[in-house]
Structures are given as structure tokens and as C-alpha cells.
Amino acid sequence: MLIGNLKDRQLPQLLYQLHSNNAVGTLMITLNEIRKAILFDNGQIISAYSNVREDSLGEVLLRSGTITVEEYLDTQVQV
């Protein structure tokens, strides 16, 4: 288990170390109420999670211009 502060090590360096060591598990990154996770299997990133809405795939695609506002709204769950 690694516990530390990203002030002490840059994220790319940490990701490289986890890849090189064939890590299996979850890297949790937190800042106040923000929670992000990167899941590893045999050093490969297999999934990621964020509780920040702006990090959702739809939001990223919309901001990058890959999808239109109409396409984005079509994907939203109607409650």
C-alpha cells in the first residue's frame, strides 16, 4: 500500500511506477470533497472514476466539441 502526498511525487511518475510494478488495485486521489480513482490490473489502467460531474465522459466530449449539445442532452437520463 502506498500512502502519500502528490506534492512529494508527480502524478506521471507515480503512474509510471504503478505500471512498471504491474500494480493491481486502486489509486485513490482526494482533495477535500473531490474523489478520483484509477483502477489498475497488472500495471494497466482498466478504469477510472471521479465524483466531479465535469469529469464525466459526456461533459468531456461536449467540451472538446466531439458531440453537440443536442447529442449530449439525448444521453442524459430523464427523471
3D structure, described in words:
- This protein is of the alpha+beta class.
- Helices cover 32% and strands 28% of the residues.
- It has 3 helices and 3 strands; from the N terminus they run αβββαα.
- A 3-stranded antiparallel β-sheet has the order 1-2-3, with no helix packed on it.
- Strand 2 and strand 3 (44-50) form a beta hairpin.
- The longest helix has 10 residues, at 11-20.
- The chain is elongated and about 45 Å long.
- The model has no long low-confidence stretch (mean pLDDT 89).
Attribute tags:
single chain, 79 residues, 28% strand, elongated
SSE topology sketch:
Layout: H1 11-20, E1 25-31, E2 34-41, E3 44-50, H2 57-64, H3 69-75
Oligomeric description of these chains: single chain
Q: Report how far apart the termini are.
A: 41 Å
As a whole number of angstroms, the C-alpha radius of gyration is 16 Å
Compute the number of helices: 3
Average pLDDT rating: 89
Order of helices and strands: HEEEHH
Parts with pLDDT < 50 across at least 5 consecutive residues: none
Largest sheet: 3 strands, antiparallel
Helix/strand-derived class?
alpha+beta
Task: Tell me the β content.
Answer: 25-35%
